[in-house]
Design goal:
About 30% of the residues lie in helices and about 25% in strands. The chain is of the alpha+beta class. The strands form five sheets. An eight-stranded mixed sheet has the order 8-9-7-17-18-19-16-20. A six-stranded mixed sheet has the order 11-2-1-15-22-21. Strands 3-10-6 form a three-stranded antiparallel sheet, with helices on one face.
Length: about 350
């Protein structure tokens, strides 16, 4: 038996991998109405940020992501995986020049179209390029429907995990209340900050806020990106985001973020739009911007999977699969992602 603490993106993907191997597990999650995973747009993009560099292991990450999300679609009976090109507008002549230099390398050209058709109703002063093999995942719907499946199979307990109730038996197995487990995997996101077992893990909180807008004039088939992104989620509604607040004191949406996003929308859209909702969630970020995955270096059979940050939709399927292969088959984890790096003095 394996206990998985947390049913956000990380916990759901670990559970899915175990389910595909017919392994026994139970998930424990308080099922909050809002969380980073439930609010996140779920973008996957092989091109990183303003520097416009190809993401490390992009081909491998994208292949594993597609395989995993299509498999989950079959399990839950709903579409959650959407392949869409990203229409990325340049913000300056410098952006154009940076792109031209990047586009000289075959790895970069593999993922981009340097001369896409011009999209309408956008303030497009400097032109744009288009990223291929990108898209988004409806993480909130995936988590909701996967939770329903797990409840039906008695694999999900909806409660707050109590750390002081997790005790180690004489045979080195773990006991949580009435559950005896061979392994315990913590997939808690930013709430892992309070985990006494992995208290050396330097989790930082990054609050992200986004708007839901209604707009009838811009593309529904492509993701629009310039400082912020616009993703069509159906019926003329779009997610517009996101922000990064490293000092947030509340999980609730706040007016400064709303104003910031509205100003970015005004600078991007050459048409009318209506703000219909404002959402917020707290991401878990590791300072070196890499995930933390693997076994506790000092307490056997305790594991962690955390630090997905803003690129979890693309990276999480790979690391969830790698963790389960490590647990079940003894396959090595990438050194750069292994949690033991925080215990090396």
């Amino acid at each position: 038996m394996i206990i998985i603490v947390g049913q956000g993106l990380a916990g759901t993907l670990v559970a899915y991998n175990l389910l595909m191997r017919n392994e026994a597990f139970i998930m424990i999650d308080e099922q909050p109405q809002f969380s980073a995973s439930k609010v996140a747009t779920g973008l996957f993009n092989p091109i990183n940020g303003r520097r416009m560099v190809v993401s490390r292991n992009a081909v491998e990450f994208l292949k594993k992501a597609e395989e995993t999300y299509l498999g989950i679609e079959k399990l839950i009976g709903e579409k959650i995986y959407f392949r869409q090109n990203i229409y990325q507008l340049f913000g300056s002549i410098k952006d154009q020049n940076d792109f031209s230099r990047r586009n000289e390398t075959p790895d970069f050209r593999h993922f981009v179209n340097s001369s896409p058709p011009k999209e309408q109703h956008l303030k497009n002063e400097y032109g744009a390029f288009e990223t291929r093999q990108s898209g988004w995942v409806s993480i909130s719907l995936m988590i909701e429907l996967f939770a329903q499946k797990m409840l039906e199979q008695n694999r999900l307990m909806t409660e707050t995990f109590e750390y002081d109730k997790l005790l180690q038996n004489a045979d080195k197995t773990w006991q949580y209340k009435q559950i005896k487990a061979d392994k315990v995997i913590f997939c808690e996101g930013y709430k892992g900050q309070r985990n006494p077992f992995f208290n050396r893990l330097p989790i930082r909180r990054s609050k992200g806020e986004l708007l839901i807008i209604r707009c009838n004039n811009i593309s529904k088939e492509k993701i629009i990106k310039k400082s912020i992104y616009l993703v069509h989620i159906g019926n003329g509604f779009y997610k517009a985001g996101s922000t990064y607040d490293w000092n947030a004191e509340t999980e609730s949406p706040e007016q400064p973020a709303r104003q910031y996003l509205a100003e970015k929308l005004d600078a991007l859209l050459d048409c009318e739009y209506e703000i219909t909702d404002h959402l917020a969630g707290i991401r878990a970020v590791i300072p070196d911007l890499k995930v933390a995955v693997g076994e506790h270096p000092e307490q056997k059979w305790l594991y962690v999977f955390n630090g997905l940050g803003a690129r979890g939709a693309m990276h999480a399927p790979y690391y969830a699969g790698a963790l389960v292969q490590y647990l079940m088959d003894g396959m090595e984890l990438p050194d750069y992602a292994d949690v033991k790096r925080f215990w090396i003095s």
